[in-house]
Amino acid sequence: MPKSEPPLIITAAVVGAETMREQTPHVPYSPEEIAEECSRCFDAGAAMVHVHGRHDDGSPTQGRDTYAAILDAIQQRCDVLVQFSTGGAVGMDVQERIEALELQPDMATLTTGTVNFGDDVFMNSLPTIRTIARRLQHFDIRPEIEVFDTGMITTALRLRDEGLIDEPIHFDFVMGVPGGIEASPRHLDFLVESIPDDSTWSVAAMGRHELPMARCAVDSGGHARVGLEDNIYLTKGVLAKGSYELVERVADYAAEQRRPLATPNEARQILHLAD
Ligand code: KMH
Ligand code: ZN
To answer: What pLDDT is stored for residue 2 in this prediction?
Structure first.
């Protein structure tokens, strides 16, 4: 890897909307549990955390108060950058998905298209995408464009042309969702070739693809997202004790490859976030 490549930003997706205690006892639900996990991930090398809200029973919520409690609990523990989900869970309406943005997190997601999501459909019509993009601009929050399939890049560039997404754009390639693009190095190469040259990008691959694709990102100058939102296993049949163990794996690999990890401040600069 050329030494000129930027420090590696590891994002920890610690909770998500779908991973439940029935699948792994290690997924956090309450704001305190989520913040504890974020803190462990920060200690393991993550510069950013991607968070969703949960009710006490684990069901997903995008509620403002829940996100406020999560943000406060994280900020009491560490300086990690905090990225809110605007995807929430399938079936949520757009107003619910964006109500927490007034808390002005460091970053928030923006999915630029509809995708089959297992047996469900993650709906993102153009009007929905524009509504979220306008709200992000209103609060001066930079989006991370979630790309579940190639057409979502085209739509992101369309919104750029409409003035709703500012360049340079940060893309997160969400690979291996049943219904979305496959998680393979070949597909990753195509995605990377398809974005503007001044873009930054990361990979979030599902299940057993998570760590191999994170390693591909480390090797090719991208950034990596890992965590229990996308994958609950450390190795075949062995549950990760938390997202932090997955972060540790990527951090160890980056060290082997002599790619330094980005601090939150370095990540701010790389991603052009406000101070
Ligand atoms: N839970 C998925 C339906 C995001 O966070 O912005 C959508 C998702 C994307 O997780
Ligand atoms: Zn998410």
So the answer is: 43
Residue nearest to atom 8 of ligand 1 (CA): 87
- Burial readout 195-218 (b: 16 or more C-beta within 10 A, e: otherwise): beeebbbbbbbbeebbbebbbbbb
R_g over Cα of the chain: 17
Q: Residue 1: what pLDDT?
A: 41
Q: Which ligand lies nearest to the CA atom of residue 146 in the structure?
A: 1
Which residues of the chain are under the pLDDT cut of 70? 1-3
* Cα 164 from Cα 166, distance rounded (Å): 7
Residue whose CA is at the smallest distance from ligand 1 atom 10 = 87
Residues with CB under 5 A from ligand 2 (ion): 85
Give how far Cα 58 sits from Cα of 43, 170, 198, 206, 230, Å.
25, 30, 39, 20, 16
Answer whether 168's CB lies under 8 Å from 199's CB: yes
Give distance in angstroms: CA of 2 to centre of ligand 1: 33
- What's the 51 CA to ligand 2 centre distance in angstroms? 7
Question: Could you report the per-residue pLDDT of 198-230, keeping only the tens digit for each?
Answer: 999 999 999 999 999 999 999 999 999 999 999
Whole-angstrom CA distances from 87 to 18, 112, 147 are: 12, 10, 12
Q: Which ligand is nearest to the CA of 129?
A: 1
